[in-house]
Amino acid sequence: MIAVIGDFMIDHYLWGKSSRISPEAPVPVVEVEKEEDRLGGAGNVVNNLITLGADVLVSSVIGRNSRRMLKLVEEKNIDTNGVFIDKSRETIIKSRVIASHQQVIRYDRETINPISEEYENKIIEYLNKYIQNIEIILLSDYEKGVLTKSLTQKIIKLANRFNKKLIIDPKKDFSKYVNAWMLKPNKKELETASGMQIKNKDDLIKAGWKVKKDLNLDYLLVTLSEDGMALFADEYIEVPTLAREVYDVTGAGDTVLASLGFYLSKSDDLVNAMHFANAAAAVVVGKLGSATVTLEEIKETQRRIDNSVDYKIVDFNTIEKIANELRSENKKIVFTNGCFDILHIGHVKYLQKAKTLGDKLIVGVNSNESVKRLKGPSRPVNDEYDRAYLLASLEVVDYVVIFDEDTPYELIKRIKPDILVKGADYKNKEVVGSDIAKEVKLIDFVEGKSTTNIIKKVKNEK
Q1: What is the pLDDT of residue 126?
Q2: Fewer beta carbons under 10 A from the terminal one: N or C of the chain?
Q3: Is residue 141 among the annotated active site residues?
Q4: What is the pTM for the complete model shown?
Q5: Can you give the pLDDT at residue 88?
Q6: Under a CB-based contact definition with an 8 Å cutoff, are residues 64 and 87 in contact?
Q7: Could you tell me what percentage of the chain is helix, strand and coil, using 3-state DSSP and rounding each to the nearest 5?
Q8: Any idea what DSSP says for residue 30?
Q9: How many CB atoms lie within 10 A of CB 163?
Q10: pLDDT at residue number 248
Q11: Are 104 and 18 a contacting pair, CB within 8 Å?
Q12: Percentage with pLDDT > 90 across the chain
């Protein structure tokens, strides 16, 4: 079990589109299409842990409008007995307006006064009740009043007494984190804590060792944004970043805290935990809003470091999950299929045009048996894995799925693409899956370029 204590809040999202400026002021008019609440702050750490499959215990203090918060916790199948309600406080709600994948404005409602000793004691009593079953404790400090200096020290002492790992995502007042097992600041927070300006690696190393010593920490792990992570243990260790495209860093620190906690609840290997958390961060910054990351996504990212494209070749169940996730992010999915027996320029140009129609291109590839039934016993020339791997090697292709049926209808049912792409030779013909996809697009082939022509040429030259 992993315990999460800290500032729980509601991330409130208004999703829409904007095509005009208000006549009342120079601001965009957003036409709201979807509205949702998500657990935020320490709750986003919980979101990530639940997605990873962890068993989670939570404790915090919230205020008025508590039903809205408790509902979000209960929806995760988490016991809310550790979430205490102080009606003198405001439950924290951060509202974000998102238009066309861009955050337009955020407005907050919150109380940031320190909680009273009464509520500190309630949290300690609750934590103490379950301490024997807890593998690791995560403190998510957003400096909104829950993790007071006295409560933080009480939790640290409790964790040390029972020899429990404890990781803290800190804010400005580092004095309350003395004697913690691990502190996880970012570079800016480390500058504040050390009183040193960090301009280069030497500055970073000096500041890190200083803070580790001053606070008597077992470990200090510093997140360095595009430069990865740095661990101060018995020695200094660096792990480079894996992120390739960054849409939004909202909640990335929560994902790192959750993924570190998840890994270290099962293992003592700090370096592998860093690699795991780094891969999780690389995934989540490619998503909009306070997002979460699955174990499969982390594995895909880790496989990427080995310069392999195998992570793009997935099965039916995996592509269905991926497609659902892409839809939740408002990404436009493009699907096409074929045998792709001998990959040639015609195929590549066709796929390049298909990719321009949306955000993600998924390609279905006929299996060996499927090709034999369609093309005859002498085909395919290349094995199904070879064909899938070559397609996956193309930058424009995001995922490849091998299917065994004569048509990709069952696969299309799983993916539910926005756009279904076929060759222009399908004009005036029925396209399999057209009843599922939102739209069908036909693309011209490169004249004279085909697998059949290549095979004929090879046979003639012999």
Answers
A1: 97
A2: C
A3: no
A4: 0.66
A5: 94
A6: yes
A7: 40, 25, 35
A8: E
A9: 7
A10: 38
A11: yes
A12: 63
Give the model's pLDDT for residue 291: 67
| 262-273: b (≥16 Cβ within 10 Å) or e | bbbbeeeebeeb
213 is in an annotated binding site: no
Question: What is the model's pLDDT at position 293?
Answer: 78
Whether residue 172 is annotated as binding a ligand: the answer is: no
Residues with Cβ < 8 Å from 59, sequence gap 6 or more? 3, 4, 5, 82, 83, 84, 123, 126, 127
Residue 3 C-alpha from the chain's centroid = 21
Token code pair at residue 254:
């929560």
Q: Which helix (H) or strand (E) element contains residue 369? A: helix 368-375
| Two tokens, residue 169 | 């995502």
CATH 3.40.50.620 matches 310-461 = yes
Residue 332 labeled ligand binder: no
Spatial separation of the C-alpha atoms in residues 228 and 278, rounded to whole Å = 7
Copy the structure tokens of residue 22. 């208000």
In angstroms, the CA 287 to CA 253 distance is 14
Residue 438 annotated in ligand binding:
no
Fold classification of 2-304 is UDP-N-acetylmuramoyl-L-alanine:D-glutamate ligase (3.40.1190)
pLDDT in tens, 403-438: 999 999 999 999 999 999 998 877 888 899 999 999
List the structure tokens of 437.
Answer: 């996809």
Q: Exactly one of 7, 248, 254, 418 is catalytic; name it.
A: 254
Strands 333-338 and 360-366: parallel
**b/e code 51-68 from CB counts within 10 Å (16+ = b):** bbebebbbbbbbbbebee
Give the pLDDT of residue 265. Answer: 93
In one letter, which amino acid is 121? N
User: What residues are paired with 232 via a beta bridge?
Assistant: 220, 236
Question: Of the candidates 363, 358, 349, which has an alpha carbon nearest to the alpha carbon of residue 397?
Answer: 363
User: Which pairs from 320-329 meet CB under 8 Å and 24+ separation?
Assistant: 320/414, 320/415, 321/294, 321/296, 322/399, 323/362, 323/414, 323/415, 323/416, 323/417, 325/294, 326/359, 326/360, 327/416, 329/287, 329/288, 329/291
- The reply to whether 310-461 shares the fold of 2-304 is no
Q: Residue 321 corresponds to which tokens in the numbers above?
A: 């999950």
Low-confidence ranges of the chain (pLDDT < 70): 241-251, 285-291, 302-308, 446-452, 455, 459-462
pLDDT at 311: 75
Boundaries of every domain in the chain: 2-304, 310-461
Predicted confidence at residue 280, as pLDDT, reads 85
